[in-house]
Amino acid sequence: MSSNTKKQDNKxxxxxxxxxxxxxxxxxxxxxxxxxxxxxxxxxNNAESYFGLGICYxxxxxxxxxxxxxxxxxxxxxDYFEAFYELGICHLLEGIPCGAIKNFVRAIQINPxxxxxxxxxGAAHELCEEYDLALMIYQKLIENSPEFIKAYxxxxxxxxxxxxxxxxxxxxxxxxxxNPDYYKAYAGIGVCFDKLGRxxxxxxxxxKFLSLKPFSDQTDFIKNRLDKIKYPKSQKEYLSACK
Length: 243
Fold this sequence. Notes:
- The chain is mainly α.
- The protein has 14 helices and no strands.
């Protein structure tokens, strides 16, 4: 192949990639995938094209195809942090958390300071029911990135799952010190106090949550809990008899 032909081919592949990038920004992932495939047919050694195609299939919820093309991207570019990270995400979405772990580990080896990769590694271990390891990862992340709220949130959610409500409430209070308007923390603390039998405190936090977020997928649950806490069954029966 002459140098001029090779330059023309590279230009054609680049053109298809640019069009695909633009289509992705418009959320037109099916059309973008077709353009990435055209780019790959011209140049089979461009990691960016395989990465882009993998991301398209991720958003099209075809996770096995996404994994296939992201794998091709990392074969061509061994230090491709974004591709390893997305491989981990796609394995999680495909329901293969233990397969996600090795990709998140590789992503962290490439970029040790990325908190999202470390967080997802913890989530993957959690889904593998390796709870102690997940808690350790979340705690380490909190220590290294003390303002990264997602780490506190993931750890507190896992602690609640393990019925460690006092520890979880303490952690959620640390979120509120970072962001007093973080409404999810109020709901979480309310649930913790509710489970611990501290109903007066639970009511206070539930009400604060509702004042910040009156319409959410948790609203009905919290309103029902408030009703049950404020008016226990025996009291409701008494009030009903008095009518």
